[in-house]
Amino acid sequence: MVSILIYRTFRFKLKRKLKWAHAAINLASIIFISFGLAAAIYYHEKVNIAHFYSLHSWLGLLAIILFVSQYIVGFVTYLYPGVSLRTRVRVMHIHRFAGMGIFILACGTIFTGLNEKAIFSLKKYSDYPAAGLLINLVAILLIAYASLVLYLVTRPDWIRIPLSELHPNGNEQIQMKK
Question: Which spans of this chain does the record mark as coiled coil (predicted)?
């Protein structure tokens, strides 16, 4: 989630450095997601619960597949030398849209996970137990957080300021246009 805002937060920094930071944060996310997925599978095995039967698990698996696919395509397109500037510019709109879509899907996965936890773990959820209220509060805070992230990512006045940078070959100056 931090990665989606890196170009907005550090909008006066060189794009090449931001690309590597963006890639590193996303790679770290993939590593943490892998541990989380392994922990969920291990837990389900331990307590004899079926795998990937709920909407939460389907959305989560879809989010993971799309996120890893987005990472691979983004890495090849923007960090692999040899991809033309024209191709990079053409793919950028798709990359941004897909990133926001995956972010929204991840938030939806969290909502369904919170709902599952409340329904399966709390005996009298309708009696407003403290844990149920906490789950509801977390969901409301997630809505606020996701709304702020999407607001900042889509605001034209928060877009990264294009800076002239050296082309990877070290000779010509290039400037990406939005």
Answer: none
**Residue 120 burial by Cβ neighbours in a 10 Å radius (0-12, 13-18, 19+):** exposed
43, burial (CB in 10 Å: exposed 0-12, middle 13-18, buried 19+): exposed
Rounded to whole angstroms, how far apart are CA atoms 159 and 15?
Answer: 12
| Assigned CATH for 3-174 | 1.20.120.1770
Higher pLDDT, 111 or 164: 111
Q: Is the full-model pTM beyond 0.90?
A: no
**Residues with Cβ < 8 Å from 53, sequence gap 6 or more?**
none
Give the whole-angstrom CA distance, residue 115 versus residue 151.
Answer: 25
DSSP letters along 117-139, please? HHHHH-TTGGG--HHHHHHHHHH
